[in-house]
Amino acid sequence: MPVVSVYEDVLQKALGGIDEKSFDALCFEFGLELDDVTSDFEIACKERGEAAAKGLSKRVIYKVDVPANRYDLLCLEGLVRALSIFKGKSTTPIYKLSQQAPNPDMKLTVQASTAQIRPFVVAAVLRGMTFDNDTYQSFIDLQDKLHQNICRKRTLCAIGTHDLSTLTPPFSYEALPPKDIVFQPLNQTEVMDGNKLMEVFAQHQQLKAYLPIIKDSPVYPVIYDSKRTVLSLPPIINGEHSKIKLDTKDVFIEITSTDLTKANITLNTVVAMFSEYCKDQFTVEPVEVVYADDYPGNTFTKPGMKIQYPNLELRPMESKIDRLKHSLSLQHLKPEEVRDLLQRMSVPCDLDPKDSNILNVKVPITRSDIMHECDLVEDIAIAYGYNNLHLEVPMTFAGAGEQPVNHLTDLVRVEMANTGYTEALNWALLSRKDNFSKLRREEGQKESSNVNEYVASCMPVSVRDPKTKEFEILRTSLLPGILKTMACNKGQELPVRIFECGDVVVQDSTRETKSRNVRRVAALYSATKTAFSVLHGALDQLMYGLGFEPLHEHTSESRRGTYTLVPSDDPAFIPGMQAHVTVEGTVIGVIGEIHPEVLGSKGFDINLPTSAFELNLEPFLDWL
């Protein structure tokens, strides 16, 4: 979890009567953990020795672990404010815009070229700021923590903060070839272009980690003011020209991103935390973001669209008080008490004047973690005190039991192991090449109407933007996995017997998720010469264990079901040496000799005669 450092004297001023023991207890009540009590001097002593620590501050620092989704607690200001509200020493502030519409020049135009690299940008202005050493450092620390947390190391969002007095609005957000972007980066003495910047910062201890985000792109994102002064080259670095100093009064904040929702949360967090230091507390000046007429539209923005940021409106939620109390077995609480508990957690709310059982919640911009009623339940539990909740045994009986399909799978595993086969466990993700091409199968184009039917070429579920070619789709067959296992073990003593029980995933438009899992078993037998009869025997034994016998062995006295082998034309197997396994007229699997091309260099490179079968197991749940 993120760790936030808070000075003891700052806590004393805000909360009063705080020492290590009482603060530890307060953190526990609030759902936090006091990780350490230290100072800059002590830290340096531990890391580099007392000589290196000489002259450093002995000011007491409390290090607090905070939840990763509570972005409002990632800085000293947010943590102190939340604890102060929790203790009843202050109320939740109301964040507001300084004016209904932005000034005509306070505009940021997004050019079409940015759509190919970082398509979104949001912005705001904090006027009349007052910085000192502590607030300045906290301002920098919050940006670092947000970059590591919600911004996912700047891949989703990158924050740029600038001294507005050094700039001339309006601003322009563009994407240009690296050689055309020339400026002096922050804390550098040399003016350089984008290519030189990449070379210089490749050796930088912190910034080199962010270079790959845009390094291979033909264009880099850049923000200019009206005089073509570079504000920043996101997500790498700001310009030296607009560097924020202790005497900075007006701060321009811009956040470029690939995720507009995350960008809004990040912007709201920054302005909410530091608008406290504005001349008009908790007041933010809006900025108009204008998308160029030739900007390619997307789900969130359209060409020519004008959007005002930040959006400080409270998000309304409605919740039933009875349900909130029942979730925690706190039926004795009055509606007013439930309201007061939520308000202690920085969540403004009021009872509905027409129905006292309805709580009208107004989620502030600082509480983006509240998405559902269960989040309100959690806040009420924290405010009430987990230690104050009483244990209650439910009045309903819920006997635990194994899922039938899992129980059947365990029985199949035992049966296959008794036959002398070794179980394999493979990835559910694989490449299209492994799933289809290497098996000589075509990718399915339509869904099967019979959920029990074995279909060799199903429509796969694809992974959007896979990180590697090896994980493009969810498998539609277990055969590629056990064949790859065989390829990796062909040097073992022959014969090799392998089986796997697991799920494959196929598209199914009738399901809510548009897909469904199908439990299957697959096995192979590989040796120096063909031994199909051995694999056939394993199939017979498995089917006997499942209560089925071959049709030609069935007698009128037998209580077993029957199965038959009928000719098939699966391209993964040798023609004439394969068959479908059929039960009650439904094809539930396939068995046969694997085709030489599948076993050769174009396939899985096994180069040994191999037999295999694959069966759907789920139909047996109805038949047994």
Largest sheet: 11 strands, mixed
Please report the total strand number as a whole number.
29
- Give the quaternary arrangement of the chains: single chain
Percent of residues in beta strands?
25-35%
Keywords:
alpha+beta; 26% helix; eight-stranded mixed β-sheet; 17 helices
Set out the fold topology.
Blueprint: E1 3-7, H1 8-15, H2 20-30, E2 33-38, H3 40-48, H4 50-53, E3 61-65, H5 76-86, E4 96-97, E5 107-110, E6 120-126, H6 133-148, E7 157-163, E8 171-176, E9 182-183, E10 192-193, H7 194-201, E11 220-224, E12 230-233, E13 237-238, E14 251-257, H8 260-274, E15 283-291, E16 306-309, E17 315-320, H9 321-327, H10 335-344, E18 349-351, E19 358-363, H11 373-384, H12 404-418, E20 422-423, E21 429-430, H13 432-435, E22 473-474, H14 479-488, E23 496-507, E24 515-526, H15 532-545, E25 548-550, E26 561-567, E27 573-583, E28 586-594, H16 596-599, E29 610-616, H17 619-623
Parallel strand pairs: 4-15, 5-8, 5-15, 20-23, 25-26
Antiparallel strand pairs: 1-3, 2-3, 6-14, 6-15, 7-14, 8-11, 9-10, 11-12, 12-13, 15-16, 17-19, 18-19, 21-22, 23-24, 24-29, 26-27, 27-28, 28-29
Helix pairs in contact: 1-5, 10-11
